[in-house]
Amino acid sequence: MLFNSYEFIFIFLPISFFIYFYLNKKRLTIASKSWLIFASLAFYSWWNISYLPLILISILFNYTISQSMISYNNKSKKIIEKKRILQIGLVLNIAFLGYFKYMDFFIENINWSLNTNLSLMHLALPLAISFFTLQQIAFLIDSYEGLVKEKNLLDYIIFVTFFPQLIAGPIVHHQEIMPQFASIKTKVINYKNISIGLFIFTIGLFKKVVIADTFAPWANMGFDVADKLNFFEAWMTSLSYTFQLYFDFSGYTDMAIGAALLFNIKLPINFNSPLRATGIIDYWQRWHITLTNFITTYVYTPILRSFNKVTFLKAMLATFIAMLISGIWHGAGWTFIIWGILHGIALIINHYWKKSKRKINKILAWFITFNFINITMVIFRAKDIDDIIKVLTGMFNGQIVFSRHLYEYLPSMHNLVEFGPWLQNIGGNKYTVISLIVAFLIVLVVKNTIQWAENIKFNTLYLSSGIFMLTLSLLKLHKVSEFLYFNF
Fold first, then answer.
1. Where are the alpha helices (H) located in 115-173, listed in sequence order?
2. Gap between the Cα atoms of 310 and 413, Å rounded
3. How many CB atoms lie within 10 A of CB 428?
4. ∠ CA 34-36-39 to the nearest 5 degrees?
5. Are 207 and 250 in contact (CB under 8 A)?
6. CA geometry: angle 57, 63, 69, nearest 5 deg
7. Is the pLDDT assigned to residue 243 strictly greater than 60?
8. Which ranges constitute the DSSP H helices of 71-169?
9. Looking at the predicted structure, is the pLDDT value of residue 75 above 60?
10. Element housing 401 (H / E)
11. What 8-state DSSP symbol labels residue 27?
12. Which residues contact 328 (CB under 8 A, 6 or more apart)?
């Protein structure tokens, strides 16, 4: 079930909300938990019920592993055995993810490198497998280190399946979400949280269906349909995807945070105006924050600890490996690996620059950072190397074509450039340019969702803004449009 659907907004969400709080009001705690689990699993199964056994098996397996570690005697002579339980859990989780997400990619590369002809398995990627697997890996490690102890199976299932964050995050930790469910205040309707939650949800819905989906056709035409792109078409294609992905994913996060707040649950911030970043370090502190925190805590830090003596060079090596793994996590393809490598290199350069204490103009720093992000987004979006070459060639070596309407106004350019249908190959027009300008203004000038929510005032401005965004969004809901991060 999609957040951006009539079924979710007008049926699923209100029914889930009212039954949950009705059961809590009657002090039927176990029943309210069971209802929330049922609702979350129904939400998950809406796309394909065949995915349901997989997530249930994953939950039961990880719960069993965690209980084995939580109840384990911590005497020194048994530490190795407890660590082995953790290792079994981690290996099987990674194998579970790897089988569904990377098996065909592995077979393709075996065939290419060894000139074999092994048949592909054509496995369908189970919905949200990357997110609920990462979340449970973090839980196992935290359980091993004694940071969390969850013995109640119902609570553990809620932790994994809570529907607002189940499909694409934010990635949550047990210690930041389950104490909220245990609080008595959580079980009572909070009208302030409802107001703020609905406002945040509306902003996210607007980002997705009004902004992100506006850019989708131009990005899709440029990457998937056009055989060749001129200079302007290539830049419009890359910028369209950059804005599409940002507004799509941050929109999902806003809707997740807003929906969770209706249940008095505060999910962690996942975006903080990342396209305003003035460096790649700054960017990764603003973009997909919960993934950055996961990579830092469970990948980068363990790598660093494995060195006998930490040096700047070793820290940079750990940074590079962490970003490479981040690239691999995003998808099974060389494009994602290249993307991860480039971001790893960029982070190293940024760290060296900061270490040298050289200053750079903030506008120039933003310009360099944004263009690096935009160019690497081409690699992130491309289906293969040919797509990368097509778009980047157009961006940096494409023919400059101006609109034929400018012909009479630019006589000095007649012998230098071509005049004609300048955005024909991506189905673009003057509204493409206007949309890009508006998107730039939004990401660079307008307050982000968190800033709006922190300073929310229940006045005419907020009410009218909310009604306007909601009305415009609802009018566009007739188009079915999945979130981009469902593919990762």
1. 129-144, 153-161, 163-166
2. 58
3. 23
4. 110
5. yes
6. 140
7. yes
8. 79-114, 129-144, 153-161, 163-166
9. no
10. strand 401-403
11. T
12. 102, 336, 337, 340
DSSP 435-457: HHHHHHHHHHTS--HHHHHHT--
User: What's residue 77's pLDDT?
Assistant: 54
- Cα 315 from Cα 333, distance rounded (Å): 27
- Which stretch of DSSP H or E encloses residue 388? helix 385-397
Q: Is the pLDDT reported for residue 163 higher than 90?
A: yes
User: Which structure tokens are listed for 26?
Assistant: 């009657």
Which residue in the block uniquely carries the two structure tokens 């079915």? 480
Residue 293 parent element (H or E): helix 289-295
Residues β-bridged to residue 403: 420
Identify the active-site residue in 173, 174, 288, 330: 330
Q: What angle (nearest 5°) sits at the alpha carbon of residue 42, between those of residues 40 and 48?
A: 120
Give residues with Cβ within 8 angstroms of 458, minimum separation 6: 195
> Tokens in use for 175?
């210690």
Tell me the per-residue pLDDT of 291-346, one tens digit each, with 9 for 90 and over. 999 999 999 999 999 998 899 999 999 999 999 999 999 988 999 999 999 999 99
What sign has the CA pseudo-torsion 393, 397, 399, 401?
Answer: positive
| Tens-place pLDDT, residues 29-66 | 999 999 999 999 999 999 889 999 999 999 999 999 99
| Residues 6+ away with beta carbon under 8 Å from 386 | none
**Smallest Cα–Cα separation from 198: which of 486, 480, 456?**
456
CB 286 within 8 A of CB 272: yes
Q: Which two tokens stand for residue 262?
A: 């209706």
Query: Tokens 């940071």 belong to which residue?
Result: 147
Structure tokens at 307: 């060195």
Encoded amino acid at 19, one letter: I
HSE at residue 268, side-chain half, CA atoms within 13 A, is 20
Task: Look over the chain and give the mean of its residue pLDDT values, rounded to a whole number.
Answer: 92
Contact of 194 with 462, CB cutoff 8 Å: no
Between CA 177 and CA 120 the distance in angstroms is: 40
CA quadruple 284, 286, 288, 291: dihedral sign: positive
Angle between helices 191-206 and 460-475 (to 10 degrees): 50
Determine whether 330 is an active site residue: yes
